[in-house]
Amino acid sequence: xxxxxxxxxxxxxxxxxxxxxxxxxxxxxxxxxxxxxxxxxxxxxxxxxxxxxxxxxxxxxxxxxxxxxxxxxxxxxxxxxxxxxxxxxxxxxxxxxxxxxxxxxxxxxxxxxxxxxxxxxxxxxxxxxxxxxxxxxxxxxxxxxxxxxxxxxxxxxxxxxxxxxxxxxxxxxxxxxxxxxxxxxxxxxxxxxxxxxxxxxxxxxxxxxxxxxxxxxxxxxxxxxxxxxxxxxxxxxxxxxxxxxxxxxxxxxxxxxxxxxxxxxxxxxxx
Amino acid sequence: xxxxxxxxxxxxxxxxxxxxxxxxxxxxxxxxxxxxxxxxxxxxxxxxxxxxxxxxxxxxxxxxxxxxxxxxxxxxxxxxxxxxxxxxxxxxxxxxxxxxxxxxxxxxxxxxxxxxxxxxxxxxxxxxxxxxxxxxxxxxxxxxxxxxxxxxxxxxxxxxxxxxxxxxxxxxxxxxxxxxxxxxxxxxxxxxxxxxxxxxxxxxxxxxxxxxxxxxxxxxxxxxxxxxxxxxxxxxxxxxxxxxxxxxxxxxxxxxxx
Lengths: 271, 258
Prior knowledge:
- The structure holds two protein chains of two kinds.
- By secondary structure, chain A is mainly α.
- Chain A has helices spanning 2-42, 47-50, 53-66, 68-97, 102-117, 124-131, 135-159, 163-171, 176-213, 219-228, 232-264.
- Chain A has two domains: 1-45; 49-264, MetI-like (MetI-like fold, Orthogonal Bundle), CATH 1.10.3720.10.
- Chain B has two domains: 1-81 and 158-168 and 188-258, 3-Layer(aba) Sandwich (Rossmann fold), CATH 3.40.50; 87-155, no CATH class.
- Classes of the chains: A mainly alpha, B alpha/beta.
- Chains A and B meet through α8 and α9 of A and α3 of B.
């Protein structure tokens, strides 16, 4: 009786705590926006440089109505997601396949480390010249940003497979291919999944930098164009839209993670 | 008479290369196991029992000697015998029933068929209603039951059990020993069972092989003629006590000799 009331008390306290945290989080956001608006109206902030939330919103609505904003959002999202998907799938496959050849893995390991350390964004001008100012150079840059980290995550996962489990599967008469599909791939899944969050952000950075260098569409191109014409309101629109977009993509990846880990993790709870 | 030497270990030695020095794990081990027998291997830790098992399981080539099953060499042929270890080694992302039927999955048996074949044994081994759970939701004893079932369901006639109950508490261990004997008496599999525990060996086996310290050799082979079913009240049986004393002396001499 007493124990029950204590646990329910603790739970209640926890719930109140969580609600309080959420309140503070949203409150801070609203407060900051209000402060920005107030600062711009009262002249604490230079409205030319910092614009104001209402001005930014108004500009965004105008741009949306002409269809420009929507087109740029679609362009940047598409290259980000495509680069992310290709990089994750090809990179993970590469990392996993190293399991079949210890030698290939040992040869590739220093290359992966060096390529990972290489600032791939510095290659952007070369890539734009190589692949043109169109869509493909953005996708390739986003792909390059993600493929190496994906390969490293997957290979780490493949390396971490419990050797006793490998022995067990072989003792049950498994072929190497079966050990790969039934053991190595699922074991490495948590590693691959944990790399997704980082990779979606990297992929977007790749797309935007590609658009910065040379492009006729996209949010990155919109920001650069607005900057060179001193249209700082539009720069702010670009920044805000990109922030919202990256948050949405992050949330989508978190959702994907949840779906994937429900399938692969040991911690599944049955209802 | 293939039944008397159904599983035949013939002069098996294994040396490992450890930094230039050859380290001998087992040396000239020979014994025959009759079909359907329950034989325990008892030895001090580090006597090369696991090495011997890996060789019999076809996972490790011996330096010398041969392992024959039903008069055919099984050196380097994995998947000929069932193998169970102290760790349950259940795949955490598969449900209990999918873990239990892993051997069938590997052979390409359809999932539904494998499951229905497993169902009666699942109930026998006390795992009914746990089929859809994941391994982490089960206690250590239940997980080891599932591992035992997986081994039984490989459909192999020879089972190698390497200290399968070593990590369990005394009560759970006793329950699993009873389940094992139950299933063995029904299926008449040939079982080779590694243990450190003299009492466990006496409770389960027809015969007990004592190995020496590294490099492992066969030190003695005793047959246990105690009637079955064996029960805990046999602990006071004179034959039991005499065998136990004999085995303890053998093991102790082994340890102090080195």
